[in-house]
Amino acid sequence: MASSSRIAANSTIMRTSELIITAFNALKGNILRTLLTMLGIIIGISSVILIISLGQGATASITNEISSFGANLISIMPGAEQFGPARGAASMLTLKHSDALAISDAKIPGIANVSAQAGTRAVAIANGENVNAQISGVEPAYAAIQSLDVQTGAFFDQGQVDGLAPVAVVGPTIVKDLFGVGSAPVGKLIKIDGKPFRIIGVLKAKGLSGFVNPDESIYLPITTVMKTLLGQDHVDDIMVTADSAEAVPQVMESIKGLLLNRHRITDPKQADFTIRSAQDAISTLGTVTGVLTALLSAIAAISLVVGGIGIMNIMLVTVTERTREIGLLKAIGAKRRDILAQFLIEAVVLTVSGGLLGMALGTLLSYLISSAINIPFSISVTAIVLAVGVSSIVGIIFGLYPARKAAGLAPIDALRFE
Amino acid sequence: MAPALISLTGITKTYATGDVDFPALRGIDLEIADGEFVAIMGPSGSGKSTTMHIIGALDTPTSGTYRLGGKDISKLDEDQLAEIRNHDIGFVFQSFNLLPRTTVQKNVERPMMYAGVTAAERRSKANQALKLVGLEDKAGNLSNQLSGGQIQRVAIARSLVMTPKLILADEPTGNLDTQTALHIMEFFRALNERGHTIVLITHEEDIAAFAQRRVKLKDGLIVSDSGEFYDHAH
Ligand SMILES: Nc1ncnc2c1ncn2[C@@H]1O[C@H](COP(=O)(O)OP(=O)(O)O)[C@@H](O)[C@H]1O
Ligand SMILES: [Mg+2]
Q1: Which of A2, A46, B91, B156 has the CB geometry, 3.0–4.6 Å to A362, for a possible disulfide?
Q2: In the listed set A202, A237, A271, which residue is the last one of a domain according to the structure?
Q3: Interior CA angle at B91 toward B87 and B97, to 5°?
Q4: Does a structural domain hold residue A83?
Q5: Which domain, by its residues, includes A407?
Q6: A-chain residues within 8 Å CB-CB of B119?
Q7: Complex prediction ipTM
Q8: How many other C-beta atoms can be found within 10 angstroms of the C-beta atom of residue A223?
Q9: A376 in contact with chain B, both atoms CB, cutoff 8 A
Q10: Residue B210 maps to which CATH number?
Q11: Residue B181: inside a domain, yes or no?
Q12: Distance in Å from the first CA to the final CA of chain B
């Protein structure tokens, strides 16, 4: 008994592999029709692969950006909490420089650095050249927060901030644009918005960090910027770093309590400021890309269903075309399940071939697009399993009806079919 | 006398065509012994193919009983009939005998695949059968690369790989020129000499001449039978 069931299992495997080969031959017989039939599956699977791959790449890229300005980073922005990154920051005047000073002075445990920030874009003139630069008014701690290193000279100190000193620390690109390569601009004067500043430091080249490029920025004491350049007493935001990523939630709580108190707000829901951490930003991003992926996946699913209906249609045509063949097979001993297996395998071979082609196409496209928009390219095992799995399921579902129709043909009707 | 291999008693077959029922067979009594070579003859539309389909377990009679090797076939289900066709009967049709896009070798192996024969055994039996019909060198060819006579020889090879008692052939030479037809008939004669019972449908006298017995049909009835077996039964 055991050995006879083993023989049966062996012969099933044998038959299946034979039927797969037979199915391939049948499909090879009409390449153009086969390709057209598979088109829906190819498009469906390649879009799934494209969505997964680009989604992962984009998420990885943005997550990297955010983490690059620190997992310990907390930013406080003026204005009430809103969904998404869009804020009317410029029109919000609720965050003062004194708020930043208060956070520093409060000696909140877990806080490493605090710096307010107030910026603008302005024309900088020096050495007879001019350049439109990002002007950032910051505090000395900002250099530590953003890991800015000084190449020559020094970053300004607290005394210079307190004294509203007209000094500037400039990024290397600005130096190159104004003074040329290999110049030594420390000690020279630079005019910003018509007002003279003395250059006291040049930054090391760093490249894009988060959403700012320090290489193309000019850093001034925040007090100087607020008073001399902008004539305002509010700041754009306050950046705080915690000692560790673990301390971030506690520090955020403490700052929130402090600012609510300072702004005389009793209901936390009425807060006129927003505290965010880089960690929050990453998880928000996750939600957004999740929703987007779900949406695009739904579209891909529809194209797979359409592709499946195409398969069903062509399989029904095939069954009709091959009625005589089915009759012959039944005459020489094929049972209902043999015919069912043959046509089901043919449908699955069709969809899986389409799935594999779709995977190749999707991978190629996502590689090209990833390199074009400069995000990391990755292709996951999940994607491959998904392509093969989903396309087999589509094949089984949409191949079942035509295969049952073939299997149910009476041998005599099939043989007499003209 | 040994029991008949084939025993048809009062077989009728009526086709429903539109509103009128068409009686293709109107009461066939026929016994064929093991080892006979029988030619079924008759004009077109006389019921030859219908008779062969019933004998071949491809179709069921409207009434009457059919015993194959003493077993009542009419009581069997679809899968059991498929097994009988697979193990006990070999078929050679007039046309569409081979699977397209499939090699000669695989065509001949196909009945053994349904029987669950191992790949090695299938290969050797198919080779043997192809050798018997002189086509061992065509094993790798596709069916569309063969002549009409070669196709029929491959079909003969396939019909005997399961070593069935009974081989049924429905006008196997109907599409062939006379010389090729006679050549094909030599193979049927050889099969009969090897012990296979052969029931062959033809309306050509020189083809029927290969058989030892002739049964003539007309309008769904047997009008003459040269066989002793028939005489015995009556
Ligand atoms: N499926 C069918 N439906 C209706 N009539 C049929 C069917 N099959 C056969 N017939 C009729 O039955 C008669 C006998 O057919 P057949 O056995 O094929 O004859 P033969 O093989 O002797 O030429 C013919 O008149 C034919 O038209
Ligand atoms: Mg006929």
Answers
A1: A46
A2: A271
A3: 125
A4: no
A5: 18-64+284-416
A6: 14
A7: 0.94
A8: 19
A9: no
A10: 3.40.50.300
A11: no
A12: 15
